[in-house]
Amino acid sequence: MGLVVPRDAEQAQRQSKGVVMQKQSVTVIGLGPMGHAMATTFLDNGHPVTVWNRTRSRADDLVTKGAVLADDPAGALAASEIVVLSLTDYDAMYAILGSATAALAGKTLVNLSSDTPDKAREAATWAAGHGAQYLTGGVQASPDGIGKEESFTFYSGPKSVFESSREVLEVLTKTDYRGEDPGLAALYYQLQLGVFWTTSVAFLHALAVADAHGIKAAELVPYISGTVGTMPDFFGFYSPRIDAGEHPGDVDRLSMGVASVDHVVQTSKDAGVDASLVEAVLAVFERGIAAGHADDSFTSLIETFRKSGS
Ligand code: NDP
After folding, report:
1. Residues whose beta carbon lies within 6 Å of some atom of ligand 1
2. Spatial separation of the C-alpha atoms in residues 65 and 83, rounded to whole Å
3. How close is the Cα of 123 to the center of ligand 1, in Å?
4. Residue whose CA is closest, atom 7 of ligand 1?
5. Is 296 exposed, middle or buried (0-12, 13-18, 19+ CB in 10 A)?
6. pTM for the complete prediction?
7. Domain ranges of the chain
């Protein structure tokens, strides 16, 4: 059995012999705040970077830093084996690559754009039809988190493709591989975003009600952050019960919950603040009561969601 030389040691040996290892080239298509941060991070880490963006001027500073601005999408694809897409949605991908499908063969498309799991699965099939390998990604960071230790991205798609791209992708963030189904990374991403956006809008609603009483955000935020900080324990307590399909009313009962949410709605209305967000929550609680869950925990609302969706 031969000696296995760790990658870092191998690199150090080559460098000491004067062999400079060229880092893998990467193409980034889409230079909104996120794609721009990704291209910057690849450049900062010594990767040759080719970029393309519909609005070409967004590449100006990247070109100054050493990126190559491709003339067209086909040129961007031709430049690298790994092609990172950071676009508003998947329709933007088809709008850009639809005219360049002949250049897709042999490429690895890593789509870090937001969209639905079904769109991700369709995209994987579309890419395979043009001879490309395909990974879905869901970035769990803001642009200023790209290249930082604490950030990570969900990935899914063929394991072998993920493993062969991993070293390059980990220049951007840590990776969390969810499985072979290309829809999985999009699913995990959208599940986080559902919590993120509803919580963020609830935050703004609370600030509007506070402001109507002359209380500024700076005064309220420590208390809201305290409440949000209790949520992991709250989720941890209830999730085994939810997985077991058990919703006993030993800690909380829906009849209490519906009264409580109604008080939140009335407080909003009394302050002259749009109550539509909390009224939507109240409507869910009322459907749970109508379904006979008054003596069960609020967690029984998961049954209401399931029935409403089917
Ligand atoms: P933006 O929407 O600001 O930028 C998107 C990019 O898509 C731009 O390069 C834009 O080109 C391009 N684009 C959109 N529509 C088309 C089209 N029809 N044809 C060609 N190009 C198009 O998004 P971000 O950079 O902020 O984010 C990129 C992705 O990352 C999104 O899917 C987002 O959900 C996700 N994400 C973003 C985070 C953030 O905090 N920003 C955090 C986590 C994920 P042009 O410059 O010409 O308009």
Report:
1. 30-35, 53-55, 58, 86-88, 92, 95-96, 113-114, 139, 142-143
2. 19
3. 17
4. 87
5. buried
6. 0.90
7. 7-180, 189-309
* CATH node for 7-180: 3.40.50.720
Can you tell me the distance from the alpha carbon of 304 to that of 235, in angstroms, rounded to the nearest whole number?
A: 18
Domain 189-309 sits in CATH at 1.10.1040.10
Structure tokens at 296: 């069960």
Can you give the pLDDT of all 310 residues of the chain as single tens digits? 333 334 444 455 555 555 667 899 999 999 999 999 999 999 999 999 999 999 999 999 999 999 999 999 999 999 999 999 999 999 999 999 999 999 999 999 999 999 999 999 999 999 999 999 999 999 999 999 999 999 999 999 999 999 999 999 999 999 999 999 999 999 999 999 999 999 999 999 999 999 999 999 999 999 999 999 999 999 999 999 999 999 999 999 999 999 999 999 999 999 999 999 999 999 999 999 999 999 999 999 999 999 766 5
**How far apart are the CA of 10 and the centre of ligand 1, in A?**
38
CA distances from 217 to 156, 263, 268, 273 (A): 39, 21, 16, 16
Q: Atom 14 of ligand 1 has which residue's CA nearest to it? A: 88
